[in-house]
Structure formats: C-alpha cells, structure tokens
Amino acid sequence: MPDQNVDDALEDLPPSSKFIYKTLADEGSMTLKGLTETTLLSSRTARYGLDQLEEADLIDSSPALHDGRQTCYRLKHGPDGSEPTDDEQTVVVSPEWVESRLSEFEADDPDLRLVEADSDEEYERGHLPGAVQIDVLEELVDVNGCGIADCQTFETCVGDRGITVDSTVVIYSTGHNQYAAYLYWLFKYYRHTDVRLLDGGKTHWERSDRPMTTDAPEVTPREYSAHPSDDRIRAYRTDVEAAIARDVRIVDVRSSSEFRGDQARPPDKDLPEARSAGRIPGTAHLMWSDVIDENGRFKDRAELEQLFHDRDVHPGTETIVYCHIGERSSIVWFILSELLEYDAVANYDGSWIEWGNLIDAPVESDTGN
Question: Model confidence over 229-286: pLDDT tens digits?
C-alpha cells in the first residue's frame, strides 16, 4: 500500500488506532499483551484500536509464528509500503528458532542473548552453545528464598552477562522450565521489552539431540539500567491478605502433599522449611506441572484454558498465584498472563516460605494442624 493510502486510511481512525499503528511500525509484530505493556493503553482501548485498524485493512491478526496459543498483530504493509518480515516477537520460541540462531547467540552481541537459569553445576554439565548462566536461587532470590533481590542486584547480575535493556533475551532451564519462567517474570517485573522462553527448555532440547557444549562464551559486560518496577504483576503479603476478603482468585500450584498440609516444603527440593504446613484459606489447587505436556512443552491453548476454567479462573478474574518460593508459580503466572493473556495476574513471590512463617496468618489444612 503506498504511503499516501496509509495516511488517508489512518486519518479518520481514533487516536488509539494511530498510536497502535505507530507502535507496530516501530516494534514489529506484537501480541495484545505486548501492545498494552508498550503503549500503556488499557486492554479494552487497545482491542478497540486494533478492531478499527483491521476494519481499515491496515493490519493482520494470526496465530504467532512460534506460538500458536497467542494472536499476533502485524502491519499488512510497512509504513514505506514494503511487506513486513516474518520474524515475529513472541513470548515462546521453538527449539528450531533457537537452533537456527546459535551462531548469533555465540557472538558477543548484546542484541541477542541466550540465558540458562540453572545452578553452576547444571550449567557446567552442558548447556546450549552461546548461553550465559544465571543461578536464580543464588543470585536473584533474597534471604531464605523469601522475595526477590533488589533492583541494583538485578541490574548488576544481568549486565555482567552482556545484557542491555534493548537485548532480546531468550531463557531456558532444566526441569519444567520453572527457573526460566521465574527469571522471565523478573525481567517483566523490571519492564524489559523483549524476553522469551524456549519451549520445552533444556530437557526437551537434550531429548531432541540438539547441540550442547561445556564451553562458556566470552561476554563483554554491559550497563543495565532497569525501568521502574511493575507492581501489577507482583503480589505482596498485604495483597494476599486483602484478596482473602475480596473477589480475587488465589491459586496454589504446589504439590498435593504441600497443599493438604502434609509437608512444609517441596518434597523433592532442598529448600527451607516453613514454620507451618497447609495453604492460604480459600485457594484453588492446580499442580504447576499440569500445564506441561509429556514432551516438556506447554500444553495447547484449549487444554490450558480448560484447566483454569475448571478452577473458576477466568480472563476477567483478578488472580494471585503462589508456591513455596515463587518459581513454580511463575510458570502458571506465565501461562495466564503471557499465553492466555489474562488481564490481572500477579505472582506472590514471598509464597509459602513467607506466609507459612507468619505468626498470625490464617492457614487451612486437611490434617488439622
């Protein structure tokens, strides 16, 4: 479409449509969630602006190239009339996407960084070529697993790995990608624009017999200056206390034994034990691992939506998720907030290690303790 035709089509559209069009022109293809975060428009206003752009035949909407669970919006033509590229910005990338870019990850280029969110021992056992390492529990979780480290600590940690605020950051970890999701949540807490998860993480990558190495890349440290934190996606103890008396859905994603009150810490992890066992009153229960399929990748959208529908968690419901220290709940936060694009989801990173150690906090259990 020639420039003049685009200008004519935009002329009679509302300001929100013009703003969204400019954002898509500057940033490339984006999901609704990405647009609301970037433009600070409400979801309702952004949807209206997108509807007007679609009616004017200026944008396309389709499943994201690397994650069919999301809708991506893109310009039908670039502002100069050119065809847009297919390198869409998505929150989940496939192993094929990462493997095709390994040479770029191995270059000391801050534009694209691959991060393994695991322990030193796990990283040294073998990692994806070009991946730097961040040990989330050791470096970015506060004392005894209760809450996150401060902003300056985060800035130093990621800057030392050659990451800037403009970097595209792709994260993975072993297990069910829970520590990768926790690090993703931290990046989003500090409003990092372009951060993504490798679907299936290290487990699926290795099962697929893809390249691994024990060589650590040479990385030039960079200065990272974090944006102001986004407290909309983080729940504090006071938020949970208030939620108990309000129409807010609280979801416990721990194991069944923890939820029942049989154990005061995860059964298979060496994490601090809380003073009491049980759950926050009135919470729904969803095992965090139930969102992952047999290949270690996220289940499809229909299955995920059904899981939450069965627990009375809906797109318009304000929701808080928690586990023991916030890493397992970050996976569920990621599903609700980033894949299903629910509007108001917060991760309680203090989680049970904080709540279960409070003297006067209400606790439910099936054991009578």
Answer: 999 999 999 999 999 988 899 999 999 999 999 998 888 777 888 999 999 999 999 9
Catalytic residue among 72, 146, 157, 323: 323
Rounded Cα distance between 88 and 28, Å, is: 7
Give yes or no for residue 111 having a pLDDT over 70. Answer: yes
- The secondary structure of residue 61, as a DSSP letter, is E
Query: CA-to-CA distance for 259 and 288, rounded, in angstroms?
Result: 12
30-76 per-position pLDDT tens digit: 778 788 888 889 888 988 989 889 888 888 776 554 444 557 788 87
3-state secondary structure of 171: strand
Q: Which of 38, 114, 26, 41 is nearest to 75 (CA)?
A: 26
Active-site residue, 323 included: yes
* Band of residue 84 on the pLDDT scale cut at 50, 70, 90: very low
User: Are residues 172 and 106 part of one domain?
Assistant: yes
Here the CATH number for the domain that contains residue 278 is 3.40.250.10
Domain membership of residue 366 (yes or no) is no
Environment class of residue 281 by beta-carbon count within 10 Å: exposed (0-12), middle (13-18) or buried (19+)?
A: exposed
Residue reference for tokens 């902003």: 151
d(CA 347, CA 334): 9
Q: How far is CA 358 from the centre of its chain?
A: 28
